[in-house]
Amino acid sequence: AVGTLDFEATTADVDRIARALNFGQGYINPLALPKIRMQHGVYFVLALEKAETGTHDAPGTVCTCDHDGAVIATADGAVRIKELVDAAGTPVDLVSALPVGESVVALNADERAALRAFTEVTAKYETWFIKRLQSGQGPEIYGALPPSTDVRPSVRSFQIPALSGWAEERAIAAIAGYFVRSGAALPIRIAYINDTSAADARALPGFVAPMLPLVLDAAADVTGDALVNMVSAQTALLAERRGFPSDLILRQPNARIEPFTVAIASCEPSRTPSATNALLTFAVPKAGGAPSLEIDTSRLPVGICEKLLNGLDAFVRDFSADGTRRISDLRVMSEAE
Asked: Within 10 A of 318 (CB to CB), how many other CB atoms are there?
């Protein structure tokens, strides 16, 4: 389904499908890429060939693997995968991704049906999502350290009582407005998660992007009420267009998408993805309650976290007091500061 290689097929069929979807070195198929799913993730195949030797292993089994290629059994032989990348286009170490003896995880009938249904709805919106992903920038967080593979994330959760009981769109507008008021480059781009995108990402992990691009072109002189209306219109549009496949950007050879710095999850807590990879992740409850903010304190020192929370609290209180005031007139520092 949608480019997923089926190793229950013959060697000739697997090879033919891979070649049909992969246009060769330096050429990316803009419609779909061949992909495989292992226990720990989905990978995209950039180079595959028929293996010269056969095997008695069950179809989908990784028979041998080294840094030059991995031999995987098919229905009547084997193929050799020579190059894999992840959804960001980063080369994947074959030995780590394809352990010998492990089997490719095939899509079951329900997953194939779900992936086809998702694609039928979303395929016509791919160009729109590409433009949204390339529009704007994530808010720059003062004092944040760049991500590092040498440092393990340390996530702390903070409550935001000033937003307790707010309607969803108004809470999102207040959060976005704070970053607009703080001088973020416009338009701003925030990762947005709703119930549908969370459910799709959980049902089809690795195949479906877990977050949607909420893009707001709101200058600092916009009023609070106008920003709420803008958020309402944009989130409704994202809900209608549902989402996009995880390899969408990989299929655009000239696309360069900066990582999201801020995410807002507006879905039931049990469906919120456990990790968004954003520096700041806001969780906005559907049925009242106090929104929370998860911060990776390995990248943002606690002192700066507290200053951000104090500024956000001051801004939210001004935002709630009068929706006709301009964002530029609202505070972003506490009284003590």
From this structure: 19
